[in-house]
Every structure is written in structure tokens, then in C-alpha cells.
Amino acid sequence: MKRVVVSGGTGLIGRDLVARLTADGHEIVVLSRNPQKYRSALPQGVSAVFWDARTVGEWAQMVDGSDVVINLAGESLSGDGFLPDRWTAEKKRRIRDSRVFAGSAIVEAIKIAGKKPEVLIQASAVGYYGPRAGEWVDESEEPGNDFLAALCVEWEAVTEPVEALGVRRVISRLGLVLSNDGGALPRLLLPAKLFAGGYFGNGRQYWPWIHIDDSIRALRFLMENGSAKGPFNLVAPHPATSREFGQALGRALSRPSIMPVPSFAMRLLAGEAATTVLDGQRAAPRKLDELGFVFRFPELDAALLDLARDGA
């Protein structure tokens, strides 16, 4: 049994990860800015501890003596609506600060810990590579130069100091996580169910995706594999273009996929944030493959059929 401290443990990935680690018999501590709100929703035996995601406080006592720290904290890039929230200067500041301050606080807690964790798993995103059209990218590629790429570079760098403390650090560059409980999929399902499904822009941009089950399995795999270090693309081995994604969604729901959303309309409505659907990366999980991780859902059709059944 390990003690695992999780920030962002009430988010899309965190909820399932906490539940599965608890089922495995681990002692789980969730860091939350509102522990009273989420305590009753967490699995039995999970501790919810207050932190402000900015500064070291009493929560740091839980890091001291822990075996694993998993940092998933960060404000949503796109909000909760069908269209991404516009990235105003204030929105960008909140997106950046929620990641950088949380990571910095965790580093400080590890520095003062008498018994330091064995591993820190740091969340990031495939946005690190910037818009890449159709070229394949793996973990060896240099970062892009847009807002998301710069954000990911800073997000990842803030926790680098733990490596000098002897802590193994894993960076999980997540793709589009497919889940019925949040994220992008429910937004795409509604228009598809109303026979208004389609694709965005020219439909040729690649969306690197991963089934929620595989994202949790990959995080557990990286946590337990002592040779796993550095960045890992948490994406399925077969990314799909926006057009292919719309067609696969139509097949899963037995609906047509015929109504594209023009690029100019997306940029008019969502501004710079439209990049989250109009641009993409053809990302490959090379390092996961090299370590022998096996995906349950390597193909998009099987992933969407599984989720369509669960969400029916």
C-alpha cells in the first residue's frame, strides 16, 4: 500500500484515478480548495485536505512521508459550454497561475519533507508541441510557440527542481480525454444526437485522443514503473482528424455526420481559444509503447462505442 497525494483529485481524470487507486488498496489524500464540498463524493477512506493551490500550508504534512504525488491541478482551458470560453487576458492569467502556483507549492512541500516521495507525476498536455498539421510528433520534439505551448513549457518546468532532490518525475502530456462525465465528449455528443454532428474547420486537423480508462491505466502504469521518467504522451496510438472523429461519433450513435462548423465561425465566436478544436497534433505514445503499455482502446471506433453504451 502506498500513500498517494493527489491535487486536482476532483476533476475529470482525478475522480476516476482516486477511485481506482482506492480500490487497489492505496491510502489517498486529495488536496482541494473546498474539501467540505467534495468530501462526501469521494470514495470511503479518502482524506480531503484543504490547500489554496498557491502556498505551503498544513497540507504539506501529508506530502511528508507520502510515496507518490500526482499533480493534476489547473483551471479548465475551455470552460463548460459547447464553445470554448474566450481567452481574455484575465482567463489566460487564471489558466497560467492555477498551474504554475500549484506546481511551485508542491515543489516547496517536497523540499521541506523529511521523507520525500518516490515519484511526482506532473500533468501537462500535447499542446506542448503547438499546431503541427499532419506531421507525427513524439516526446523528442521541441515545443511550439503559441500560448498553449508556452503554457505547457512553464507548467512542466516549475516542478523540475524535485529531480535534484532525488524524486523521479514523470510528465503526462495528455490528449483529448474521452469520458461521459465531462471534458469535450459530452459537448460533441449533444449536437450529434440532434443530427447536427460534423467536424470543425477543414476537418484535416488531428485530435490526439485517449479513452478515460486508458488515461487512468497509463497514469497507474507510470506511477508503478520505476524506469518511467520525463515526458510521456498519454494519447491513443491512432489519432483521428476532426472529420474522422465526427464520422466515428456518427457511427457510434447511428447518426449522420454532415454539418461542419466553418473555421471563421469558430474564430469569431471563440477567438484564440478556437485553436483547441481547429488546430491539433498527430501525437504518438512512443515512450509508453517502448515500456510495454498496452491500450485497451487503441482505435477510436471501439472507444466511442464503449462510451456510447455507457452513456446511453
Q: Would you mind describing this structure in some detail?
A:
With 312 residues, the chain is α/β, with parallel strands linked by helices. The protein has one domain: Rossmann fold, CATH 3.40.50. 38% of the residues lie in helices and 17% in strands. The chain contains 12 helices and 13 strands. It has a 7-stranded parallel sheet, with helices on both faces. Helix 1 crosses helix 7, helix 6 packs across helix 8 and helix 8 packs across helix 12. The radius of gyration is 19 Å and the shape is globular. The protein starts with a strand and ends with a helix. The mean pLDDT is 90.
Quaternary assembly: single chain
Report the portion of residues in β strands: 15-25%
Question: How many structurally independent domains?
Answer: 1
Continuous helix count: 12
CATH class: Alpha Beta
- What is the annotated CATH architecture? 3-Layer(aba) Sandwich
**Alpha-carbon distance between the two ends:** 36 Å
The CATH topology annotation reads as Rossmann fold
Strand order of the largest sheet: 3-2-1-4-5-7-11
Helix content: 25-40%
- Characterize the main sheet: 7 strands, parallel
Unreliable segments of 5+ consecutive residues: none
In short:
The chain is α/β, with parallel strands linked by helices.
Topology record:
Blueprint: E1 3-7, H1 12-23, E2 27-32, H2 35-39, E3 47-50, H3 60-63, E4 68-71, H4 89-112, E5 119-125, E6 136-137, H5 147-157, E7 168-174, E8 176-178, H6 185-193, E9 206-207, E10 209-211, H7 212-224, E11 230-234, E12 240-241, H8 242-253, H9 263-270, H10 275-278, E13 282-283, H11 286-291, H12 300-311
Parallel strand pairs: 1-2, 1-4, 2-3, 4-5, 5-7, 6-13, 7-11, 8-10
Antiparallel strand pairs: 9-12
Helix pairs in contact: 1-7, 6-8, 8-12
